[in-house]
């Protein structure tokens, strides 16, 4: 690795949490031994990150945008385009893009929004959907699988309208609703037609999936079938200033999920695929760290994301989240051994909180630590929610991250004379 200043952002997706009764009121970060994260805290400067603003619940998409310095209020066009780009579908002007979940339904009742976190056979399921539901009322429907239960859908045709509701109810035990025009488009013929096409696609996909051999095998094995695909997060084509143009840095992303991969592609960054990075709780965190080190040889900036903490939060599983945090700590340990932090600045934090007591993203601030080149250490001795609250950076937002990092690394242009 060259002696030129380097920057790393390493995100533990959903790593922040709230006190957990079964952990005696500690958070998973506080309960899990994290010697390498604690080393960063002891030698770095800590604080609490609000990805967009105090108390605002965010998605991973809007959080990553803000952390990279792109204002989601003016640039965000929905999650669907990032998911689609991440699985290799270009979203053209006039297209509608959706993120989808392979889910399990009995009748219209959703019994598992993630179909048991299905991890195999989804390519065959997607092929069957495209064969049976690839054209609806003259609209081309392109469906492609992503990691585990995730998928993306792009609809391409004339006069499609994004002002429509979601089909995913976001809760097990609820019936999935029909897609409908939003109130402001209730009388718009294009919105009415678009909602009808979405509903026809959902039913055609359900027909293709319900009796598919992959799902017959899953039922025989006592696993929930992935017998429907539920669209949500509709969006339109995205235009973002390239990362290199904005910051003068050659950037790379090492990611596990297609949402973040799509964002990196839209920003013109190098997206490094790591086969061992599964996006699940079985991911190989050291493979991710090895990829970061390798990318630093030819890039000035590397962002890496490990998904496992977020999954555990959504699953209300404190023990699983502690195991995911141990993976994050192990990944950081590898970086401490293999990166020259005399010429590298790293930020380790999360993109948002996913508390195990809540099971979804919250607006709580996330612990953060800056370490390495340019850093003025504070008195934090460990990495956790309560300790980082006492850190020298206090509370800051995602929009502050790139100015902080480029300042510490000495690669920021001066404002003024």
Mean pLDDT: 95
- Please give the CATH architecture of the largest domain: 3-Layer(aba) Sandwich
The largest beta-sheet arranges its strands as 10-9-11-1-12-13-2-14
Task: Count the E strands.
Answer: 14
Helix-strand pattern? EHHEHHHEEHEEEHHEHEHEHEHHEEHEH
Which helices and strands appear, and what pairs or packs with what?
Layout: E1 6-12, H1 28-31, H2 35-43, E2 45-50, H3 60-67, H4 72-75, H5 80-86, E3 96-106, E4 109-112, H6 122-133, E5 135-136, E6 139-145, E7 150-156, H7 189-210, H8 213-220, E8 228-235, H9 243-247, E9 251-254, H10 258-266, E10 270-272, H11 285-296, E11 301-306, H12 308-314, H13 318-338, E12 344-349, E13 366-372, H14 385-388, E14 394-397, H15 401-409
Parallel strand pairs: 1-11, 1-12, 2-14, 9-10, 9-11
Antiparallel strand pairs: 2-13, 3-4, 3-7, 3-8, 5-6, 6-7, 12-13
Walk me through this protein's architecture.
The protein is α/β, with parallel strands linked by helices and about 425 residues long. The chain has two domains: about 5-75 and about 240-410, Alkaline Phosphatase, subunit A (3-Layer(aba) Sandwich), CATH 3.40.720; about 80-235, no CATH class. About 35% of the residues lie in helices and about 20% in strands. It is built from 15 helices and 14 strands. The strands form two sheets. It has an eight-stranded mixed β-sheet, sandwiched between helices. Strands 3, 4, 5, 6, 7 and 8 form a six-stranded antiparallel β-sheet that branches. A hairpin with a 2-residue loop joins strand 5 and strand 6 (about 140-145). Helix 12 (about 310-315) runs antiparallel to helix 13 (about 320-340). The radius of gyration is 22 Å and the shape is globular. It starts with 5 loop residues before the first strand and ends in an 8-residue tail after the last helix. The mean pLDDT is about 95.
């Amino acid at each position: 690795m060259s002696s030129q200043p380097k920057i790393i952002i390493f995100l533990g997706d959903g790593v922040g949490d709230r006190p957990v009764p079964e952990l005696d009121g500690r958070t998973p970060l506080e309960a899990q031994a994290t010697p390498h994260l604690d080393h960063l805290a002891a030698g770095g400067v800590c604080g609490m990150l609000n990805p967009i603003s105090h108390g605002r619940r965010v998605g991973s998409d809007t959080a990553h945008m803000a952390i990279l310095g792109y204002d989601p209020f003016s640039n965000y066009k929905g999650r669907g385009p990032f998911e689609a780009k991440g699985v290799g579908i270009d979203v053209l002007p006039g297209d509608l893009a959706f993120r989808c979940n392979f889910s399990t339904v009995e009748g219209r009742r959703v019994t598992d929004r993630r179909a048991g976190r299905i991890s195999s056979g989804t390519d065959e399921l997607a092929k069957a959907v495209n064969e049976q539901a690839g054209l609806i009322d003259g609209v081309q429907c392109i469906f492609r699988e992503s990691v585990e239960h995730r998928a993306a859908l792009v609809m391409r045709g004339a006069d499609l309208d994004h002002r429509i509701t979601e089909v995913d109810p976001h809760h097990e035990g609820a019936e999935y609703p029909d897609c409908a025009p939003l109130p402001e488009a209730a009388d718009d013929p294009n919105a009415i037609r678009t909602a009808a096409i979405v509903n026809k696609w959902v039913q055609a996909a359900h027909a293709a999936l319900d009796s598919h051999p992959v799902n017959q095998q899953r039922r025989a094995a006592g696993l929930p079938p992935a017998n429907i695909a539920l669209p949500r997060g509709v969006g339109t084509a995205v235009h973002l200033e390239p990362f290199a143009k904005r910051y003068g840095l050659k950037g790379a992303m090492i990611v596990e999920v297609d949402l973040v991969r799509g964002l990196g592609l839209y920003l013109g960054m190098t997206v490094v695929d790591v086969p061992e990075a599964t996006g699940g709780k079985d991911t190989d965190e050291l493979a991710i760290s090895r990829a970061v080190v390798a990318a630093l040889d030819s890039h000035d900036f590397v962002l890496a994301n490990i998904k496992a903490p977020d999954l555990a939060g959504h699953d209300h599983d404190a023990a699983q989240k502690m195991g995911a945090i141990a993976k994050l700590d192990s990944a950081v340990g590898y970086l401490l051994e293999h990166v020259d932090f005399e010429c590298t600045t790293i930020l380790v934090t999360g993109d948002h909180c996913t508390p195990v007591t809540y099971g979804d993203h919250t607006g709580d601030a996330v612990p953060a630590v800056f370490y390495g080149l340019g850093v003025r250490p504070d008195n934090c001795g460990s990495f956790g929610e309560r300790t980082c609250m006492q850190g020298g950076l206090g509370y800051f937002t995602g929009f502050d991250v790139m100015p902080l990092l480029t300042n510490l690394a000495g690669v920021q242009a001066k404002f003024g004379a």
